[in-house]
Amino acid sequence: MIESNFYTPDKVKPLYSEIVPAYQAAFAGEPWYEVSKCADQLQRCVGGLSSVAVGASCELCSSCPVLPAYEADELVNRLDNLAASRPTTWYVEQNGQGVTLVAIAWKANSEGVAKEKYSDVPEMAEWLSNKLGCDEVLWLDEVFANKDLKPRGNLQNFGKFVTGMAEMLGSQTVAYRTIEPRMIAVPSRDFGQAASIFPRQQGVPDRRDFVVINLGKE
Q1: Any idea of the CA torsion for 133, 136, 137, 139, to the nearest 10 degrees?
Q2: 2 has a pLDDT exceeding 70
Q3: What is the spatial distance between Cα 109 and Cα 134, in angstroms, rounded to a whole number?
Q4: Among candidate residues 85, 103, 96, the one with its CA nearest the CA of residue 12
Q5: Is the N-terminal amide bond of 31 cis, ω within 30° of 0?
Q6: Among candidates 26, 13, 10, 31, which has minimal Cα distance to 142?
Q7: How far is it, in rounded angstroms, from Cα 179 to Cα 120?
């Protein structure tokens, strides 16, 4: 039953030991390639994260990254801080081998999203205010799959889990940013005209696409 896949922050903690390595592996792969923390003094890597392996030499700056992009303790602290600072909900799919898909969402207004996710892109604050208005939305913060355990079909329940998470936090609007093509395709598949896709750098002052789903239009 899909209902059993929804978790409160406290209930999901026993799965951290699987979620954390799945997160690290997922974002080290395509299309993100966030493998290590940028060691360049000028921080020329986008977002301060590099595709260069820890201990390898970067062709751009000749530095050698010494830390993974997402350290385990750092990730756990971030996840705990989300739960402590705002209404947060989780969705986790598992098969006989372990965790295969994870989604994390929290509730905030446009100002909160701008502060949390776009501190390096100040132009997005006004853009978000215009697109999202004053009401709080469900911010779909992370969606990632463990492709070692389930290589394909991880977004087959996208519409169901997005709707379920929104219901858990009492939201009618869902928003997120992405560079993953499949996360652009599935909203239209599952929500039709209720999904609005804003392409990166085409009216969106950011390097990532932006998606808004108005559940009231379904």
Answers
A1: 110
A2: no
A3: 6
A4: 103
A5: yes
A6: 26
A7: 17
Burial status of residue 84 (CB atoms within 10 A of its CB: 0-12, 13-18, 19 or more):
exposed
Q: What is the pLDDT of residues 51-86, one digit of tens each?
A: 999 999 999 899 999 999 999 999 999 999 999 999
Contact 174, 140 (CB under 8 A): yes
All domains of the chain, ordered by start, with CATH? 72-217 (3.40.630.30)
| Neighbour tally for 78: CB within 10 Å | 12
CA gap 205, 121 in Å, rounded: 8
Phi, psi of 158 (to 5 degrees): -50, -55
**Res 13 pLDDT > 70:** yes
CB contact set of 116 (below 8 Å; sequence gap of 6+): 108, 139
Q: Is the dihedral of CA 37, 9, 115, 32 positive or negative?
A: positive
Task: Pull the structure tokens for residue 142.
Answer: 């992370």
Bridge partners, 200 (sequence order): 204
Residue 1 is predicted with a pLDDT of: 38
Cα 195 from Cα 186, distance rounded (Å) = 9
pLDDT higher for 129 or 2? 129
pTM above 0.90, yes or no: yes
Q: What is the pLDDT of residues 109-135, one digit of tens each?
A: 999 999 999 999 999 999 999 999 989
What lies within 8 Å, CB to CB, of 31 at 6+ separation is: 179, 180, 181
User: For the segment 166-181, what is each residue's pLDDT rounded down to a tens digit?
Assistant: 999 999 999 999 999 9
To 10 degrees, what angle do helices 158-169 and 181-191 make? 80
